[in-house]
Amino acid sequence: MAASVAGVGRILQQSRAGHVGIALVGLVTLILIAASTTSFSSRENPGPAQELGGSALLFQEQNEGFFRVVKAQSGPLVGPAINVSESAPETRTYHTYDRALAQRDPGLVANAGGHHHQNFLVFFSGHQGSSWLLDMLGSAPGVYVPGFEPLEVLNATAAQKLRFLDLTFSLPTSEDAYAIWVAEIVDLGRQSGIRLSYTDLPTYADVAATRAAGFKIRPYWGHRTGFRGLDLAEVKAILDDRDVSLVLTTRQNYLKAAASWYRAREVGVNQFTRQQSADFDAGQKVEFDLDRFQEWVDFVVNAERELKDAVSFFQRPTLTVSYEELALDPIGATGHVAKFLGLGGTRVPASARFRKTGSDSLRVMVSNFEELCERYWVTPYRWMLGVESCREAGAAARGARRDEAAAMTKAAALDPEASRLAKAIAFPSATNPKDCFASGWADGAQSCASRLHQHKVEAALRARHRRSPVFFKHVHKAGGTTLCQHASAFVFTETRPLPANSGWGTDCVPQEAFLSRPPQSLLLSSLLRRQPVDADALTRRGAWLGGACFFGHLTPSAQHALPRAFPNLGFVASEGPLPDELALNLDYPLITMLRDPFDRLVSAHKWFLFMKQRFPGIAGSICSSYDAPTNATLSEWLDYYPDNWVTRTLLGSRYLYGKDLPLGEAELRQAKNRLEAFTTVLVLEELDLGLRVLGEVLGWEEREGEGTEMAAGAPQANVARGGRTDSTRELDDLTWQKAASTIRLDLEVYEHARALFARQAERLGLANATDLAR
């Protein structure tokens, strides 16, 4: 054994010196590999795979700072890699996972154990801080990083890449095994061009002390990406067998990411070509060719989609780190990653090799910044410009003075998709002044209704292209569970169970909303029920967010931060009230579904009785908004239940928790105005048609061989798919009259919802509004 280790030492010395004697490596490798009992085709089996029923092992950091461990949701992989031409432009991206994600299986498979270290991959697309992150992480003791983007090479074959993956994640546990392992690593690198850090090849002592091993890779097929030529099935087999965790890097500001790409590729300015200096920003401004820049914007958007599809596909424990959060606190952010990888207590050193090459301000980077503002002012990327910078440059002022409606019409003429949506999404008849004020639309330059319509169209377009999530206001007992199940077939949704109650799902509410739940006595406190949650609290967590009814707690800043708080979710739900101040200029669309008020009321009573029996001692009501005797009849229960529940939840927390506040015609108009702020309003009694409407608006197209019906055998919500359940048959005359009085305004809101739904279905060419009349 001593002789073999000494021989390996000579190999390392020759590799480091680039000596001609490196040819001996091939001979040594052949001899050692022949004696090896380990190969790619017969990997050491660490134990039978098992499906995890809970989430305790996968979500250790669910309440830590900015970063979240998420469980990916998607299905089995399908087929080999597509052919990617070496001459393809770098801005070309490929929908690597579309075919694979067409068949979904929510199962999550993880290794049963057997490793003395944690394997990981950093998924990145570029200019997201991944080099910065990995340089700091790799400098920490106990972390093995075999090279800088080792598989991002053109000449390596698929078999060589897969073998390298397996070698990285199968560290030797004896000196004899180490001799074989390191020789094969060196030989593989020489044959394939895989980029190794030869000067940093680990000794056996280093390997024995390793607690985490991995590297970074672009997980999609494209020009010179690590996955180019790989079969997804074989990659997933390795990640599952070797229990590999994922670190997903993202950048929320697509324009800044595209600007970094443009400067690096078109101008040659990146972190490797400039040094930090006192006049660091001097001469940084570059004139952008905006047409070429748009190609980089499209590339960034598509690459972000590929990253999220990769996470959904591989179904591995994943931690998301955004560039913005990394730039704000690099050591703290990397510390969270270290803790996620089981390196708790490890001090992560700051990186000295990777520095930003310029300001993060587009105004500093782009010499024709005013032109850039004009180009993207009336687009979904508007907020990424730095609105104040645009105003200071004068471009936004000119953009505000021009007719934005005309600009949208012109854009729609060039984009049939946008034109169709602009016609299908209702122009609001009125808005509520406080919501306009919360949106910053109090300057009178353009009507609030016109701006709202524009934002609804832009938000729908973003959601269609997976650039934003969809928010679903789940009306209690109105088919929300069914809609959540439907959404899960198209986008990533929350699948983790309720904390400490693995038998219950969250109905697409983020699991983080249920963490740090206070005692029941505090939940009934009026102060806690209406306690606001700002953007900082939503993204950093640690405090009670509000459970199933969390959205009603969000301030306007937190409403804007929702995509940042849950970056891996494409569909986010919340029950209970809307916020008292609702931002109308959100980057994501709002949808809801209403139900016949009588049917919904009877169902809500049955649910209350069930909850009282199932969980004695709790309030039994959604959002802890009221309480009633355990065995209350419907008539008795109505004395405690907030009247006009739907109307009150549309108006906001103040009206739901202040259930004694009177409601009149003014409040009814405000509730209807709130309803018109939604991109799409569905009614449960027309569910199948409603799912088709959603498909058209959100791009949730049916896959070949599938319809909008739920998959056979899938769990169903306890509601009828179409038509009324006619719950009034269960009511005697006196109870019916009492119920009708309780839901008087809800009946009018429901009729308004039906009218909005019928109008949108007709404009999409899916139905005749007259046929949908009651």
From TrEMBL:
InterPro entries in the record: Golvesin-related_Golgi, P-loop_NTPase
Transmembrane helix as UniProt keyword: yes
Key words of the record: Membrane, Transmembrane, Transmembrane helix
Stretch list, region Disordered: 705-726
Transmembrane segments: 20-40
Domain of life: Eukaryota
Coiled-coil blocks: none
Signal peptide start-end: none
Protein name per UniProt: Sulfotransferase
Organism: Chloropicon roscoffensis
